[in-house]
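Task: sequence design from structure.
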């Protein structure tokens, strides 16, 4: 039996396994089985808590389709809550190794449990070839993209994983289920891409829906919220510090002008614990 913990960051839910005590031989296969919302536990993916030689901990993340992702802003906040609440660390400042680099997290604790977490998401990547996206080198800001006969204007940003941001008038009525997968799998994106559809409320506030690479629409996306913050500044639509409303709740983000890093703050919640048959 494999002990697991189900957690979520504003509805973006993951299954956590501590590999200090239980090894996982095939995490990709296990992610598909456990994430199934009808025949498994139900989640947006699987996250492994691992030792690291470079940081306090290492995080590996697998989407619901079994593909491994570089980073997850909501997932790493829950990761921080897990290691603190379960006694793997006593520190309120931790570092976590990810495929997108080492991330530094500040934990806010109430009644001996982590309540919210601020994640230094690092510097954004805005060069097309590093996102990666095919085409001439440079930035991708408000650039036209044809999909199924419809022209979208896209801004591309990577926060260690690729994102495309598209501004729409009414995000709740937008047919995300139709266009999200088409853009995710577009030939311009060799590693596929996450897609954020964004409605501007004002220069300090936006509404975001996300089509997440490998998982479909999710209730929240932390790296996506970070990318939306960058895109808003590059398109001169929003401030460097904004409130983002997602389907699962709210996130506060800031693109710091001094160090060029993006800071993401939001809650982390433990839902339940259980065991999974090997």
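Answer:
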């Amino acid at each position: 039996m494999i002990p697991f913990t189900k957690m979520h960051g504003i509805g973006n839910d993951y299954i956590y396994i501590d590999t200090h005590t239980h090894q996982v031989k095939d995490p990709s296969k296990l992610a598909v089985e456990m994430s199934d919302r009808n025949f498994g536990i139900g989640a947006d993916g699987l996250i492994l808590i691992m030792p690291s030689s470079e940081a306090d901990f290492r995080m590996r993340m697998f989407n619901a389709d079994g593909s491994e992702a570089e980073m997850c802003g909501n997932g790493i906040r829950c990761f921080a809550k897990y290691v603190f609440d379960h006694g793997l660390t006593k520190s309120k400042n931790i570092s976590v190794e990810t495929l997108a680099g080492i991330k530094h997290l500040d934990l806010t604790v109430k009644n001996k449990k982590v309540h919210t977490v601020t994640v230094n998401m690092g510097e954004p990547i805005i060069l097309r070839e590093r996102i990666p996206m095919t085409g001439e080198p440079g930035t991708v800001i408000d650039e036209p993209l044809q999909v199924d006969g419809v022209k979208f204007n896209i801004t591309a940003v990577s926060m260690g994983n690729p994102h495309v941001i598209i501004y729409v008038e009414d995000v709740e009525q937008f047919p995300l289920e139709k266009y999200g997968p088409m853009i995710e799998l577009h030939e311009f994106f060799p590693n596929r891409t996450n897609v954020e559809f964004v409605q501007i409320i004002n220069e300090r506030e936006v509404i975001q829906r996300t089509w997440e690479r490998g998982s479909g629409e999710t209730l929240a996306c932390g790296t996506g919220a970070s990318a939306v913050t960058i895109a808003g500044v590059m398109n001169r639509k929003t401030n460097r510090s904004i409130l983002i409303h997602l389907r699962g709740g709210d996130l506060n983000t800031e693109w710091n002008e001094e160090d060029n890093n993006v800071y993401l703050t939001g809650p982390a919640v433990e839902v339940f614990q259980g065991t999974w048959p090997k």
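The mean pLDDT is 97.
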